[in-house]
Hints:
two-stranded antiparallel sheet, globular, 14 strands, Methane Monooxygenase Hydroxylase, Chain G, domain 1, alpha+beta, 2 domains, Beta-lactamase, eight-stranded antiparallel sheet, about 30% helix
Amino acid sequence: xxxxxxxxxxxxxxxxxxxxIDQVLSADIAAGQxxxxxxxxxxxxxxxxxxxxxxxxxxxxSPMEIGSIFRIFSMTKPFTSxxxxxLMEEGRLQLSDPVSEFxxxxxxxxxxxxxPGPNGTLDHRMAPAARAITLHDLLTHGSGLTYGExxxxxxxxxxHARLGIAxxxxxxSPAEFxxxxxxAPLAHQPASTWDYGLSTDLLGAIVETVAGESLGRFLAARxxxxxxxxxxxxxxxxxxxxxxxxPFAIDPVSGETLRIPGQVFDAAVKPRMESGGAxxxxxxxDYYRFAQMLLRGGELDGERVLSRSSVNLMTSDHxxxxxxxxxxxxxxxxxxxxxxxGLGVAVRLADGFALVPGSAGDFFWSGTAGTSFFVxxxxxxxxxxxxxxxxxxxxxxxxxxxxxxxxxxxx
Length: 411
């Protein structure tokens, strides 16, 4: 661990109440609901709770460790957002730039437009995009690009299946991914609707074009190495394989098979495409360093990664009333209203109007394999939750961590 654990009482945290985290998770582990987990809580720049519970791999029954490595899936997205903002700060791109400046295949995207059909059904017709997709649209998931296999828009779903566009496109090269994605219709007109999906993967490909190097190399040199995130990347080396956390073979709640490609990728295999939306692996300690950098306005240990203004831009709501949210970011990630969306993270709009504790301005995101994090700038609070539990219970743990952490605040 990069920093020692401080006494909670020194930072306005009740040590006794923090123990409830271990008690609740240990009970779930004993009941076979969760293989294991790592939880890290920090306040005012100091780690006040760090625990590893259960097993790292149910097949080998190896114990979970603080340094266990997790597939973080969509917790990769904030990394890619930071990469784009770095390039923006250098004047190499602007958020208003059309995507087609970097990937010409998106010069004339088509949109699958829903319209009423007979007997209350929906039909779809193809229409040209009303305007160009911008980098800002990608950062805010207002681009019309979605996860096709999960889309309610039938032509989009069919096109993604036909073209072999996966949620985590590790098997394609960046060029193949861009070519295939450009052939599928958009699910919405650009800047009209928040629809979570493959926008950030396209951003990762654009970072590679602008930077002239792979996304992994760019992030390693510019984001991971400066704050000491030594176990974060898009695959693991031989020395790290024994630390990879694994899920149950079968989800205990849904009965769904979990250890299949797409659900849990092989972390030891170098991907053809380093997915900017879902491809990274990390540890709780590494992701804490990243979250602490954001909480400190882009600086950590004297190393400035981003300007404070860029971090403010990233962690402020960009949806407002301008973009429709049939499913809000909070509903999508943890079944709670009250959240807008910034540039890669959900942002709380007010102290109330949510089903979980928090403060206006707190921001968070999560990964489909069971990881999540949140940062509360008002309370100087960071929580990292790492588990490999891709089933439906992951939504419960996202809410549960907030309940248990916020109850521990004693000042």
